[in-house]
Amino acid sequence: MLIIKILGSGCANCKRVEQIAHKVVSEMGVEAEIIKVTEYPDIMAYNIMSTPGLVINEKVVSTGRIPTPAEVTTWVANALEIA
Amino acid sequence: MLTIFVIAWLVAYNIIQPLANWIAYDLLSLPQGSHLGESLAFFFYDVPKILLLLSGMIFLISLLQTFIDTQKVRVMVEKRGEGIGNVMASLFGAITPFCSCSSVPLFIGFVQAGIPLGITFSFLITSPLMNEVAFVLLIGLFGWKVALLYLLSGITIGIISGLILGRMKLERFVEGFVYEIKPQSSGQVLEEKLTWKERVNRATESTREIVGKVWLFVIVGIGIGAFIHGFVPQDALTGIMGKGAWWSVPVSVILGIPLYSNAAGIIPIVSAMLSKGASLGTALAFMMSVVGLSLPEAVILKRVLKTPLLVIFFAVIAVSIILTGYMFNWVL
Predict the structure, then answer these.
(1) Domains contained in chain A, CATH given
(2) ipTM of the shown complex
């Protein structure tokens, strides 16, 4: 199962990323757990420099912006191939 | 595709002044020089002008920003000592896109890399002050010179405040966990090589997002500005905000602290104030205070800075802004 983490402390951008993640996952019919990471000690463990951050199966795929649904779909597909 | 947009943009930009005048004075038959006529001509010209400028310039700036890799920035700053480090940090703060939610990860990232607190602060201070929306609006409403002045003062304020704060040895006021976080050693750094097409797409997304957030503020702000432009007497504000009132600078800055608005909302109002007799230094100081010292930012920074440090941080910035305001009033 895919583990998708959204790194961010709750600003509007982070929520947007979460929405997109949910949307893509349900559209693709993929089994995934979407976790929001909001505490800085946990966020910074991923060594990112700006939020929101998107992590799929412990791999950082995006930081500091809202990725498009198309991009997220590609990343999820890639992650499924590797898994 | 892009070329069509560029041509359309140029055409639009050149029609709006005559169009606005035509709407206000011919279509609606308002006499020139009348309050309502002046206000409406201002409004119909400035709203499309600002929106066009915003979309055009934010696109260009976002495009340039796709070339900035914050990880590399950190590496570059890591090697510098005080002084140069502050200058570099401040310059990077000016060009890096800023979202208050990014300030904390960035702060932690810098601290973890061993970058001295003062230098980190230079970045953190200049970043919110130099936001691209503010810069573009300044160009649109006040011209290049004022915008560059704003940019220069923001960078200077960042460098000097950072130097001062660095000297004060405030490490003990940073929340402990910041020094204790160990990044996953296996955590790979996100490296992206983008094609031009990808850059254009990202810039378009950014522009859509930013303009989408502020367009309403711009319209309302210009509306208020238009009203002031047309209806408030020419020198109404000279008494309280003009050069003569020496106390106007600190008062404006202090007033600006609790006020929070994004740059889009406040600049049109400031522009109208200026046209009514407020001096440039006071108006800019007010604007920097509103945009740079905000409650939302304080709340976010509270997560990593203990209260005494937060207070000192804001105080040093406020003083720097006041001094800058005085300097502009004196020089211009």
Answers:
(1) 2-82 (3.40.30.10)
(2) 0.82
